[in-house]
Design brief:
alpha+beta; globular
Length: about 190
Amino acid sequence: MATPSPQTWTLRLKSRKTTVLLHVDPLHTFPTIKSYLYDALQETDLKDAETGESIPMPASPSEIQFGRPVNINDAHEGFQLGEWEYAAAEEEAEGKGKAKAGRKSNGGTIASAANVKNCPKGAGLKDGAVLAFRWAGDGNWDGDDGDMDVDLDKGGSGKEADMWGVKLASFEDAYGVDNETDVGGGREFEG
C-alpha cells in the first residue's frame, strides 16, 4: 500500500457491508491494488453480516475482480465488471509472454504506456472512487455472470441491477430525509 501523501488516491473498495479504504498511487496497476486488498483482507476477517460466518479468502489476489458503478450518481443501478478486468482475462488467454515483458521494467506495479487503462487514472477513476470487489466462491458470486431476472412489479427493466453483494448504507436524518450511500458522483465543485 502507498504511504498517504498529497499525490496518493483513496479508493473505497466495497463488498457486503464492508468498505476497505486503500491509499494507492493513481498509476499502480489493478493487480497491484488487488494484492494490497488481499493483504488487508487477510489481516482482518471478512464476515457475512447476516450469518456472522467467516468468508473464505481466494487462493490468490488474481482471483479478485473489481466492478465499477454503472452510474456514479445512482448507486442502486449496481456495478459492472471494470473494463480492465476484460483486458486481464484476454491477456491470460493469449499467454503470459506479453505480461512478463511489461513487468520487467518496473516490476508490474506501475502502468506503462502499453497498459495505461490498467490503473485507476487510466481507467477514468478519481480520488475517492468506489469499486465493488468479489471472487468466485465468496458467497455472493459463483463465478458465472448469467442474467438475473427482476421483479417487474417493482418497476424493473427486465434485468436486475447487479449489486455484486454490496449492501448500500442508508439512514434517516433528524429531518426525516433518507440519506443513502454514494458511489463517487456529484462531489466536484465547478465555480
